[in-house]
Design brief:
It contains 14 helices and 13 strands. Strands 1, 2, 3, 4, 5, 10 and 11 form a seven-stranded antiparallel beta sheet that branches. A two-stranded antiparallel sheet has the order 6-7. Helix content is 48%, strand content 13%. The chain has helices at residues 33-40, 70-88, 115-124, 126-129, 145-155, 159-166, 182-187, 202-214, 248-270, 280-293, 310-328, 331-343, 346-356, 361-385; strands at residues 13-23, 51-53, 59-63, 93-96, 136-141, 171-172, 175-176, 193-194, 225-226, 228-231, 236-239, 298-300, 307-309.
Length: 386
């Protein structure tokens, strides 16, 4: 099958942020997306242009337009989130983001009425019903389908960097899972989610998608939810590996890394270079290590078994990408990754709050709501001084 790829301006940027709606009294997830979206959608249009339904009624996905800089994308997100929080507040609903909700049992959740979601649940049953998980997706534009697959393959070497920085799902239905990112393991249960296959090029991608559709594994290529995938309709490479990120300044950090990496790989292809592709077993091992240990992971860097702390790898990557970030006007946002290393990723901060509260996970929910508010303020300050 032929899959048309919509060429995008190099390094253009789009971000999707899945928000949780929580009852401010019980701290549990609460259905409210339909009422909130109806309230904020402009008259005369069917749906809000930048806020969408998700699988669960307790989630709203906020999306940006096509942006040039990370700062522009964050301002775009902030504007829509402020619309949502202003409407949700009087309803007794708080807004937050984390890879999993610390407390709520997924069996209590209301699924959004949609033929697409109904088909997904009919096909995958409990694997889909338990998807009480939330993430951040970053799209970076590329101009040619011939570049998309090599860039996806090259980005797989940075799976542990993105996952360790964003890990925010240590809890599941009131228990500590022992993992930094339980969300990443829940999502892998779907038959077309998880790590992508390292394909040879766009032709092989088209053939593989054709087999999936013709064998009725999927209805459309939208149902392939790889951790990193090409998005033909948008003309982007999409990074879906990140857990839900509670702070907008932390979203800025991972978006900056993504934009810089894709831009650099795109430029290297133009120069005739062959992009590096890590061995599949190393990619899989490093994803597990980041999911389990987060920023304390020791990741494998070569086929001889050499390991290095992911903290050091992230710091080295920020240093390496700084010249590219200057050209893309996201140096301040890129350096925010170092601030995450200093204060800890969300999974670490959640555990600290729980320990201080004697194990009370309601306090963790409150801290995540506060995290979002503080992060919005911090990102505004970053934009003013960047």
């Amino acid at each position: 099958m032929q899959i048309d790829f919509t060429s995008s301006e190099r390094a253009s940027l789009g971000v999707e942020w899945e928000l949780e709606l929580v009852d401010r009294e019980t701290r549990q997830l609460v259905s409210g997306s339909t009422q909130i979206l109806e309230a904020i959608t402009p008259a005369g249009v069917d749906e809000h242009p930048k806020a969408k339904h998700e699988l669960l009624q307790s989630c709203i996905e906020v999306i940006t337009g096509v942006c040039r800089t990370v700062r522009e994308a964050c301002a775009d997100l902030a504007g829509t989130v402020q619309e949502i929080t202003a409407t949700a507040g009087p309803m007794g609903i708080g807004v937050m983001c984390s890879g999993t909700h610390p407390l709520t049992d997924w069996t209590t959740q209301e699924v959004t009425e949609s033929p697409r979601y109904a088909a997904l649940i009919d096909r995958t049953q409990w694997l889909a019903r338990q998807l009480q998980i939330f993430g951040v997706h970053v799209h970076v534009g590329v101009r040619s389908p011939d570049k998309a697959i090599p860039i996806v393959n090259a980005l797989l070497g940075y799976i542990p960097h993105f996952l360790a920085l964003s890990a925010s799902s240590p809890y599941w239905i009131g228990s500590d899972t022992g993992l930094a990112s339980y969300r990443s393991k829940v999502f892998e249960a779907l038959p077309t989610a998880g790590l992508p296959y390292q394909l040879s090029g766009w032709d092989e991608f088209e053939r593989y998608m054709d087999v999936l559709v013709s064998t009725r594994t999927i209805e459309t290529i939208r149902e392939v939810w790889w951790d990193i995938r090409p998005h033909p309709g948008f003309g982007t490479v999409e990074l879906r590996i990140c857990d839900g990120i509670p702070r907008l300044d932390e979203i800025a950090a991972v978006a900056a890394i993504a934009q810089c990496l894709v831009h650099r790989f795109d430029s290297e292809i133009d120069k005739g270079y062959t992009l590096p592709a890590q061995r599949a077993w190393i990619v899989r091992e490093n994803k597990w290590r980041a999911a389990r240990y987060g920023l304390d992971a020791q990741i494998v860097v070569d086929s001889q078994g050499t390991v290095t702390p992911v903290r050091d790898a992230i710091a080295d990557l920020v240093d390496d990408l700084t010249p590219t970030a200057r050209r893309l006007d996201c140096e301040a946002e890129l350096s925010s990754a170092l601030a995450i290393l200093e204060r800890g990723a969300s999974y670490q901060r959640q555990r600290e709050v729980a320990a201080a509260a004697g194990g009370d996970l309601a306090a963790v929910v409150d801290s995540l709501v506060t995290d979002m508010t503080d992060g919005l303020a911090g990102a505004t300050a970053l934009g003013q001084h960047g």
